[in-house]
Design goal:
CATH class of chain B: Alpha Beta
Largest sheet of chain A: 2 strands, antiparallel
Radius of gyration of chain B: 18 Å
CATH class of chain A: Mainly Alpha
Structural class of chain B: alpha/beta
CATH topology of chain A: ABC transporter involved in vitamin B12 uptake, BtuC
CATH superfamily of chain B: P-loop containing nucleotide triphosphate hydrolases
Bound molecules: adenosine-5'-diphosphate, magnesium ion
Strand content of chain A: under 5%
Number of strands of chain B: 12
Number of strands of chain A: 2
Order of helices and strands of chain B: EEEHEEHEHEEHHEHEHEEH
CATH architecture of chain B: 3-Layer(aba) Sandwich
Strand order of the largest sheet of chain B: 6-9-10-3-11-12
Oligomer: heterodimer
Number of domains of chain A: 1
Radius of gyration of chain A: 23 Å
Largest interface: A-B, 53 and 53 residues
Distance between the termini of chain B: 19 Å
Chain lengths: ~425, ~250
């Protein structure tokens, strides 16, 4: 009758972990999860390809190397902003001020760094504007986590207030050109050809290295590893897709005598943020607690998690990454004015939702938001090529958003989430 | 007999003008199931929230294995080995079984999760409790049945070798078969040397597993009796206030 709860159990007696079996079993388990409503970014990826095919039929310009590079740099700002928002959306919160936060920070940057302004060293100015992001995030976090005001209200207030602050910093009607070649280079210069390939090789090596570290840890613990074939397939997919993308971008896409080629510099920067952010969310306590709070804040609190601190940090990360998206945007547009960043935040939220991040909190990943942002960017880009009236873009984007939210709601019911939510 | 692992003396708790616990005493011993019964609103949940450090008592003494302790926050309670399985199961639907079992105390190497180690320990713990209903420890909790969720919640407290496990209405939402499984689990838990405090409305369940029964009535402990020395109709009397207990200390 006596049971020693710590007694060792042979591994063949253990309860499964879903990692057992052949590729066939794994594929079946994956399909089962899909049917169960855990679709992740799959609908968005499918949507991206459908749209891409549609636009390449409708416009001869869509499927050109030039437009492809253009699409990536157009999307970069939205990708970064959507990834920023994931950190608070996972908590079940929202940051409507993320766009104007980037506006305030970039206004600060141009006023500090420009020769016509304070002529400060640009690196220092950049650090100051990133720090202003941290500070703004901490400010929001204080009101949301500590005072307990809904983030919708706090950040809506800031959305209005920061437009005024931005106007004061930059002066009404003011417009500052970005003068620093380093900032302009982010969106307008490219890696050398070998740089693109090196980037891809590094990605493959990092994926491989992390997978093997994981497998070693699991082996040491005595639990089953997924069949290694899955890893090779994943690496092969990255190699092929990445290879095609780098190959395309390394083609000459210049229109005049000047050759233009290579992976835009913004791409590796975005990938590094995606990688580090995913590491944080998937493999550290901080990340796990964000998901836990988004899933059931009371459970998290009872488990001894410092909910206030985690929320605080998440808002700080969101605002800081929003400033990074502002840097991308300033680099692309080439200037900063009093309206900079004002109109983008809802597209950022839409991107996250389209990619499969749940506004209810607790579900979604950075890569989902990035894919969602690419879907929205491809709509803007493709419709732009078709010379349709401006309103169509908004109509289509809105329709896609509602479609994505419906997919989210339906899959939540399938996953049993809606039933057990209080 | 040896010192009880938990001994409360004259604890009180008020919410504003409402006095919910009016000087309550409670003892729990290792290896025993100590039942806590009482009508709705008697103060059972409030009493255990104090033990969990979630909602500290206003006044009174808490002794842990004879030592005076202050349970001012959940960390303190958890450090002593007091774990609570709440009525509204404190699980995160969006996380899997392993993630829920380790929530708040994950195993890490160099700041990143050691998923393999956590998976093995979770699996072993479930096995040691003879849990057979769970297929994969990587299932999302949202996909589990009520009994399975209760099992995960109990296993979670066992995982870090809790000395005291408090269960708030563990069988309230369960069908017959699942109730049976959970009660067997509760008994195994106590037999392994844990002090189990179980809140329940269901006297059949209480008489099936408890060694000792405590009755709370409007914020006062009106009876504390060995299961073998009482019967169902007496306990009902204590719960409803229609019968007065003549036994031991108040
Ligand atoms: N946080 C609170 N604020 C105010 N009153 C409370 C609070 N928690 C419990 N109570 C009151 O205390 C009494 C006892 O509640 P509870 O401990 O949940 O009883 P039980 O679990 O025995 O049904 C009830 O009357 C309830 O309304
Ligand atoms: Mg209760």
């Amino acid at each position: 009758m006596t049971t020693h709860v710590t007694s060792g159990v042979r591994s063949d007696d253990m309860i499964g972990s879903g990692q057992e079996g052949t590729i066939g079993d794994q594929v079946r388990a994956y399909l089962q999860r899909l049917r169960g409503g855990e679709m992740g970014a799959l609908p968005a990826v499918a949507g991206f390809f459908v749209l891409a095919i549609l636009f390449s039929i409708l416009s001869p310009f869509f499927l050109t190397e030039r437009n492809f590079a253009n699409l990536l740099t157009q999307a970069a700002t939205l990708v970064m902003l959507a990834m920023a928002l994931v950190f608070v959306i996972l908590l079940g919160e929202i940051d409507l001020s993320a766009g104007v936060t980037s506006g305030v920070a970039m206004s600060l940057f141009v006023v500090l760094s420009n020769p016509g302004g304070l002529n400060m060293n640009w690196i220092l100015a950049l650090v100051v504007s990133l720090l202003s992001g941290v500070l703004i995030g901490a400010f929001i976090g204080f009101f949301v986590a500590k005072v307990g005001i809904p983030s919708f209200v706090v950040t809506l207030g800031l959305f209005l207030g920061f437009q005024g602050l931005q106007l004061i910093i930059i002066g009404s009607g003011g417009l500052y050109r970005i003068q620093q070649p380093e900032i302009l280079a982010i969106q307008n210069s490219n890696l050398p050809e070998w740089g693109g390939w090196a980037m891809l090789v590094i990605m493959l090596l990092v994926s491989l290295g992390m997978a093997f570290l994981d497998r070693r840890r699991r082996t040491r613990a005595g639990v089953v590893n997924r069949t290694i074939a899955i890893l090779w397939i994943r690496l092969a997919v990255i190699a092929v897709v990445g290879g095609v993308i780098v190959g395309l971008l390394n083609q000459n896409r210049g229109t005049g005598f000047l050759a233009v080629s290579g992976v835009p510099i913004v791409v590796p920067i975005t990938l590094v943020v995606l990688f580090l952010g995913t590491l944080l969310l998937d493999r550290t306590k901080f990340g796990r607690y964000i998901y836990a709070i988004g899933g059931n804040a009371e459970a998290a609190r009872r488990a001894g998690i410092k909910v206030v601190g985690i929320k605080w940090a998440a808002f700080a990360i969101c605002s800081t990454l929003a400033v990074v998206s502002g840097v991308f945007s300033a680099s692309k547009v080439g200037s900063v004015d009093a309206a900079f960043g004002r109109d983008i935040v809802l597209s950022g939220v839409a991107a996250a939702v389209v990619g499969g991040v749940s506004l209810f909190g607790g579900r979604g990943r950075l890569i989902h938001a990035a894919v969602g942002a690419l879907v929205i960017a491809v709509i803007t880009n493709g419709l732009g090529l078709l010379n349709l009236p401006g309103g169509v873009n908004f109509l289509v984007t809105g329709g896609v958003l509602i479609l994505a939210a419906t997919v989210d709601a339906v899959s939540r019911v399938r996953a049993g989430g809606a039933l057990s939510r209080r | 007999m040896d010192v009880p692992i938990i001994e409360l003396t004259a604890v009180t708790k008020s919410f504003g003008p409402v006095s919910v616990l009016k000087g309550v005493a409670l003892r729990a011993r290792a290896g025993e199931v100590t039942a806590l019964v009482g009508d709705n609103g008697a103060g059972k949940s409030t009493l255990i929230k104090g033990l969990a450090g979630v909602q500290p008592y206003d006044t009174g003494e808490v002794r842990f294995a004879g030592e005076l302790v202050s349970l001012s926050n959940p960390r303190e309670a958890s450090r002593l080995g007091i774990e609570v399985v709440y009525q509204d199961l404190a699980l995160c639907d969006n996380l899997d079984i392993v993630q829920n079992m380790f929530l708040g105390r994950e195993e890490t190497v160099l700041g990143t999760f050691d998923e393999g180690e956590m998976e093995r320990q979770a699996s072993e713990t479930l096995r040691s409790l003879s849990v057979r209903t769970v297929k994969s420890v990587r299932q999302k909790v949202s996909s589990l049945s009520g009994g399975q969720r209760q099992t995960v919640a109990i296993a979670r407290s066992v995982l870090k070798s809790a000395k005291v496990v408090i269960l708030d209405e563990p069988t309230a939402a369960l069908g017959v078969a699942q109730t049976e499984q959970v009660l067997a689990l509760v008994r195994r838990l106590a037999d392994s040397g844990v002090a189990v405090i179980m809140i329940s409305h269901n006297l059949i369940d209480v008489f099936a597993v408890a060694d000792h029964i405590n009755v709370l009535y409007l914020g006062q402990m009106v009876a504390s009796v060995e299961t073998s020395a009482t019967n169902s109709s007496d306990v009902v009397g204590y719960i409803t206030g229609s019968k007065t207990y003549m036994g031991a200390s108040e």
